[in-house]
Design brief:
globular, Aspartate Aminotransferase, domain 2, Aspartate Aminotransferase, domain 1, seven-stranded mixed sheet, four-stranded antiparallel sheet, alpha/beta, 490 residues, binds pyridoxal-5'-phosphate, single chain, 44% helix
């Protein structure tokens, strides 16, 4: 055996390097939480960053490892910094990061029971407890998959298999029978993508209009369904948002559940972001009816403090999850008809799967769901506080009333031209993130571009939010002066 392989597996080297890395990560965590002077996002154009790393690639091997750890930390976006208020990715709790390292090292692949026995058992515990927390009964259960997009696709494939008088798995899509999924016009794009992956074509996705509050309109749902049935389209599922990505708006789940029950249609909830609200005692009114869905997706890496990716796909009747992939794999499983909960690969798109449950299990056995409750309540409360600050400031306006921890707002401007106004918002956002002092996002609400914050960090406070408004104000005024100057000279 070569010396190289021995060195790469050397336990003592691993011990030393591991301690070094954990020390650096602990320093990063302390620096971030203390708001020391590290940029929230070290802004660089993609080509410039690529060149830096391409250059780094030729630096010395093992001797340079500490520098590599450091540079990776410094050059990344810092989710643990309380002034990170951008997209819906959580600052993971340290115990989850440690458990993920355990999973990476053990690499128990999970497709079949023996290859991931521990995490398979842990996954069942986690999923059963989550089902209970959101109000489902003992017949509920499910699996953990690689992200909300895969989760929604997995659930919708189950819904398709549950259709009466069809076995699409065997027969393929039948051009005589157009199938479709109905979803709010504000849904995440992955739902439409799922329908395209399922081969349903342009007719396979029916967008249901929303009301002024951006919630799915149930009367419009009725109309859309009638319309679809008149055109001989069979509906696989109705998908509700809990909540939608841009504004964090929750669809009226209970009413949609009633509708699905009456019409005998599969009810799926995309709760990738806001499904965790069901665990809160303060905010679970937002998800009233979630327990009535046939399937629900909830991302642990959004509102449950886990590193990406890991997503729960819950079925109200766990038995439904066994029919999704009626596929034979004799090299993995013996009897294909048996409902073997412990061979999780039978029910997921993934064959080999990371030990995703281990970190969630570690969090729950250490802190319980109380930690999730506190995280949800703190971040949702913070958004309400931010909205109050915006309402109280004459320079700003709220674009959509926040329901959870997503706040969309804008500087008051008097552009009449929408393109100019949207370009103005985009340039303010760019200035904010280039400053390194905050990281925020932007989104279209209808046709209007607006600034968007998702308060993912429970350590963000009122002072941070006031400073964010001041910074936006400063850049907005600068931008307006620049535009006025250009107008003067043209
Ligand atoms: C509502 C909603 N659904 C699905 C997704 C996709 O989830 P993932 O990024 O885990 O694939 C997102 C991502 O932001 C989302 O907000």
């Amino acid at each position: 055996m070569s010396d190289l392989l021995k060195r790469a597996y050397d336990p003592e080297k691993f011990r030393k390097q591991g301690h070094d890395m954990v020390n650096r990560l602990a320093d990063y965590l302390a620096e971030s939480l203390n708001r020391t002077d590290i940029p929230v996002y070290p802004y660089k154009e993609p080509d410039e960053r690529y060149k830096d790393w391409d250059r780094d690639f030729n630096s010395p091997g093992e001797e340079g490892l500490s520098d590599f750890f450091d540079d990776t930390i410094r050059d990344s976006i810092h989710l643990h910094h309380p002034r990170y208020v951008g997209h819906q990715v959580t600052p993971p709790i340290p115990i989850a990061a440690l458990s993920d390292m355990l999973s990476a090292m053990l690499n128990n692949g999970m497709a079949v029971y023996e290859m991931g026995a521990v995490s398979t058992a842990q996954e069942k515990v986690v999923m059963n407890e989550l089902a209970k927390e959101i109000g489902m009964d003992a017949s509920a259960g499910g699996m953990i998959v690689s992200g909300g997009s895969i989760g929604n696709l997995t659930a919708l494939l189950s819904a398709r298999q549950a259709l009466q008088n069809s076995d699409i798995w065997i027969d393929g899509n039948n051009s005589e029978r157009q199938l479709a999924i109905m979803v709010s016009e504000n849904a995440h794009y992955c739902v439409e993508r799922a329908s395209k992956i399922m081969g349903l074509g342009d007719q396979g996705i029916i967008k249901v209009p929303v009301d002024d509050d951006l919630k799915m309109r149930v009367p419009a749902l009725e109309k859309s369904l009638k319309n679809a049935r008149d055109r001989n389209i069979t509906i696989i599922a109705i998908v509700a948002n809990a909540a939608n990505t841009a504004t964090g708006t929750f669809d009226p789940l209970d009413k949609i559940a009633d509708f699905c029950r009456d019409e005998e249609i599969w009810f799926h909830i995309d709760g990738a972001h806001g499904g965790a609200a069901a665990i809160s005692r303060k905010y679970n009114n937002l998800t009233k009816g979630i327990e009535r869905a046939d399937s629900v997706v909830i991302d642990f890496h959004k509102m449950m403090m886990m590193p990406a990716l890991c997503t729960a796909v819950l079925f109200r009747k766990e038995n439904d999850s066994y029919q999704t992939f009626a596929q034979k794999a004799p090299y993995l499983w013996g009897d294909n008809d048996d409902k073997q909960w412990y061979n999780v690969g039978k029910r997921t798109i993934e064959c080999t799967k990371r030990m995703m449950s281990t970190k969630i299990y570690a969090m729950l056995r250490t802190y319980g769901f109380d930690l999730v409750r506190e995280y949800v309540d703190t971040t949702f409360d913070l958004a309400a506080e931010f909205a109050e600050l915006i309402y109280a400031d004459k320079d700003f306006r709220i674009v959509s009333e926040p329901a959870c921890n997503i706040v969309c707002f804008n500087y008051i401007d008097d552009f009449e031209d929408l393109h100019k106004s949207n370009a103005f918002v985009t340039s303010i956002r760019e200035e904010v993130i280039k400053s390194g002092r905050f990281y925020i996002s932007a989104t279209l609400v209808g046709e209007e571009m607006c600034l968007r914050t998702t308060l993912m960090n429970p350590f963000t406070d009122k002072k941070d939010l006031l400073e964010l408004l001041d910074l936006v104000r400063e850049f907005a005024r600068d931008e307006i002066s620049k535009l006025e100057e250009v107008n003067l000279h043209t």
